[in-house]
Amino acid sequence: MRYVSRRHFLRTSALLTGAAAFGSAARTAAQAAADTTLTLYNGQHARTTAALVAAFTKATGIKVDIRKGGSSQLANQIIEEGSASPADIFYSEESPPVAALSKRSLLSKLDDATLQQVPSTYVAKDGTWLSASMRSRVVAYNKAMVKESEFPGSVLGFANESWKDRIAYVPTSGAFQEQIIAIERMKGREAALNWLKGLKAHGRSYNGNGAAMKAVEAGEIAAALVNNYYWFSVAKEVGDAKMKSALFYFGHKDPGALITVSAAGILKSSKKQEAAQKFLAFMVSADGQQAIVDSVAEYPIRPGIKSPYALKPFAELDPPPVTPDDLGDAADALVLEREAGLA
Questions:
Q1: Is the dihedral of CA 76, 77, 80, 85 positive or negative?
Q2: Are 228 and 153 in contact (CB under 8 A)?
Q3: Among candidates 303, 290, 267, which has minimal Cα distance to 117?
Q4: Mean pLDDT, all residues of the chain
Q5: Tens of pLDDT along 203-260?
Q6: Residue 212 · residue 177 · CB < 8 Å
Q7: Which of 102, 110, 202, 341 sits a CA distance of 20 to 30 A from 216?
Q8: Which of 9-23, 196-210, 315-329 has the lowest mean pLDDT?
Q9: Among candidates 168, 172, 148, 137, which has minimal Cα distance to 254?
Q10: First to last CA, the chain
Q11: Which bin fits 265, alpha (ψ -120 to 50), beta or left (φ > 0)?
């Protein structure tokens, strides 16, 4: 019979015990993740958020309960709920509703490692929210009704009698309201107000960006101020080659080329801070970004991610020097719309 020393026996036992403990700890961590469910208030497009959440849960085992609503509506709900809000995360179609929560100190500071994954231009200065994806303001136009050579040199030129009943706009759109603030910052408040008055006098108001985009495609109106992805949404249904409309990009740092973003933050009142931080980290990871851009024709916030859509290269957009943080909560846009008679 082979002799086994006491020292060898004890060392072997210790190794086995350690391995068992490690395995037990791993199972405990996995079980904890499986038992965790985050509540996400979602103002972003349902399809995009569903794709992101599915990828996150597959990667981490953490479940996410999605509660859908308008971005501004959900932000106001969170403000009313205060510390009693059941929300752990707020994911907004636009940045101003998230900025409004940050302004009221309702958001947690995000992990530095997560913030460093995003270009500083698209992160809140106080680190309480970040951008998840980007889109460009554009002019969608019907190719049989107007030529690009007819477009004014600036988006401000659409507030003109020569565009009577030829230009559509959506005053309730968060991105349109961000564009108002961009004009106010770049050209002054009077210029922004006059632009809105001109659109009211000569343009045609629509209740939604999708409706405005479809009106252009159907030949009901020559052009519309929308985000780039609305064109791709229609094109996905009918095919790019069959589209009767196209997109015009202002560039030249004009407010008509404004970059707007979807954005997200973690509620300070959340009791699941660690899991919520993991969600935001995943959102800007390579896998999270791919899940987002595969579902919608928006630009990734993380460099190196390829969109399946034929987007105009981001480097060629030449947007104005107005960041999401500069736009803040965009509160004055509603004031200006009221003064112009749009609300």
A1: negative
A2: no
A3: 303
A4: 93
A5: 999 999 999 999 999 999 999 999 999 999 999 999 999 999 999 999 999 999 999 9
A6: no
A7: 341
A8: 9-23
A9: 137
A10: 94
A11: beta
Q: At what angle do helices 273-283 and 46-60 cross, to 10 degrees?
A: 110
- Which residues have C-beta within 8 Å of that of residue 120, sequence separation ≥ 6? none
Is beta strand 167-169 parallel, antiparallel or unpaired with respect to 259-266? unpaired
What separation in angstroms does the CA of 133 have from each of 45, 154, 235, 261, 279?
12, 25, 20, 6, 15
**CA distance linking residue 333 with residue 338, whole number of Å:** 9
Q: How far apart are CA 46 and CA 92, in angstroms?
A: 11
As a residue count, the chain comes to 343
> Taking a C-beta distance cutoff of 8 angstroms, is the pair 257, 225 a contact?
no
pLDDT, tens only, 48-82: 999 999 999 999 999 999 999 999 999 999 999 99
Sign of torsion over alpha carbons 299, 300, 304, 305: negative
As given in the structure block, the two tokens for residue 93 are 């179609």
Are 300 and 261 in contact by the 8 Å Cβ rule? The answer is: no
Q: Which helix (H) or strand (E) covers residue 173, if one does?
A: none
- List, in order of start, the domains of the chain with CATH numbers: 29-134+262-312 (3.40.190.10), 135-259+318-339 (3.40.190.10)
Model confidence, pTM? 0.89
Those residues whose C-beta lies under 8 Å from the C-beta of residue 147, and which sit 6 or more positions away, are none
